[in-house]
Amino acid sequence: MLVGKTLGEVAKLIKPGVPLYYIDKVAEEFIRDNHGVPSFKGYAGFPASLCLSVNDVIVHGIPNSDVLRDGDIITVDCGAELGGWHGDYAYTFAVGEISEEKRLLVERTKASLYAGIKAVKVGNHIGDISHAVESYVKPFNYGVIRELCGHGIGRRMHEAPDIPNYGKPGSGELIRTGMVFCVEPMIAMGSHRIKIDADEWTTRTADGKPAAHFEHQIAITSKGPEVISTYQFVEEALGIKH
Ligand code: MG
Ligand code: MG
Q1: Please, which residues have CB less than 5 A from ligand 2, an ion?
Q2: What are 67-104's pLDDT values in tens digits?
Q3: What contacts 128, CB < 8 A, 6 or more positions away?
Q4: N or C: which end of the chain has fewer CB within 10 A?
């Protein structure tokens, strides 16, 4: 919930001319003001509270002095710990007016997340989630990023099992009550191949085409799967109605 509220605050800042480091600063202050700790800051040496990934950057972009420009897409990935438990979710935003092909990439990546979530059922396997995401984007000839995946989460940000965005139905671990994990499709407009910058974090598409990324967190409760992350605050800030 704290991550959701932080993303809601961030959503208000997504405009041409805003520098990335400023978005990170506002998010970190918001998390700390609400008694949380940014999960990413210092994680394996990551220097910031948010991963801000613009256009061809898929994930792990480091907030710097670059400014947002009209027509960019930016993925904001946010993690926070509150009371010993981690939250981790991501949303790709449009900056000003974006091209139709970027709009479709973002919309379909988000839809692939919900396709994956539909496969989250007790008795299904992790591979059913992977397969649902991959099958959803396949008709669009998008690249499914293979090196990075969703993950279990709890007292640590990254726990077993891995949740790839491609795979065979019925493969992988059985989905059981008590599991909490993140499903997070990372989808590229072109090839799935990646390259990593000299900073050892910034992960881009090798062909320079844009990529999008959405992440939700799901708990398998005794009553069944429940999405415990929320885009409510983002969508209120963006004026999206359901
Ligand atoms: Mg994650
Ligand atoms: Mg994340």
Answers
A1: 77, 88, 90, 215
A2: 999 999 999 999 999 999 999 999 999 999 999 999 99
A3: 119, 121, 169, 170, 175
A4: C
